[in-house]
Design goal:
The chain is mainly α and 191 residues long. The chain is built from 7 helices and 5 strands; from the N terminus they run ααβββααααββα. Helix 5 packs across helix 6. It binds iron/sulfur cluster.
């Protein structure tokens, strides 16, 4: 059975494939459940494929250090508070609570073990996540001693701001303990 048939058999409406389904056009019209599909294109708000998953495997991810996925819908912007024209939005991939759809190097927390509201309240206190909430991953390290200039240079090298974000959370900031890695060891990895 095709997916479309399966959804139809359960009264899940598939008339509108627009990914930006709005409650006024759906819920009000008597379709409490709906489905759609889309692919990432340069024309969509995404502006190209995230450097994630099969895009990395197929090497068709967006290589443009000047394009900030974080500052547009589906990025990290507004995940704590919403932003101008951007609803508050997080993504939960299976159990991984992320501030954005691409997903950070490590999840903020595990939705099987903690309430999402508690997780958001905790990370909201962190200047690192406040910077992501502003859609500014290049500035997220400033509060922990990672200068913006380093973030810009690494993004240039890596060709994608989300890959810089991965590096930051891998090498400089422990999201589980919410502290810098070099503060834990007091060592030399601080740039
Ligand atoms: S820079 Fe980080 S927080 Fe922002 S969209 Fe990319 S992975 Fe998500």
């Amino acid at each position: 059975m095709e997916l479309a048939e399966l959804f139809a058999s359960r009264n899940v409406n598939g008339d509108d494939k627009d990914p930006l389904i709005e409650k006024e056009t759906y819920l009000v019209k008597g379709h409490p459940l709906s489905w759609g599909y889309w692919g990432a294109t340069e024309d969509m708000w995404l502006g190209g494929n995230w450097a994630r998953g099969r895009s990395l495997e197929k090497n068709n991810w967006k290589k443009d250090p000047g394009h900030n996925f974080c500052s547009i819908l589906s990025g990290g912007i507004g995940f704590l508070s919403g932003a101008e024209g951007i609803p508050q939005e997080i993504s939960i991939q299976l159990w991984r609570i992320n501030p954005c759809c691409p997903g950070t190097y490590k999840a903020m927390r595990d939705a099987r073990k903690e309430k999402v509201a508690d997780v958001l309240a905790r990370v909201a206190e962190s200047p690192v996540f406040q910077s992501i909430n502003r859609g500014d991953p290049l500035g997220m390290g400033e509060s922990v001693g990672i200068p913006r200039e380093l973030a810009v240079a690494r993004t240039e090298d890596l060709q994608n701001v989300c890959l810089w974000c991965d590096e930051f959370f891998r090498d400089y900031f422990d999201v589980e303990k919410m502290v810098t890695k070099f503060m834990q060891t007091e060592d030399s990895s601080k740039p």
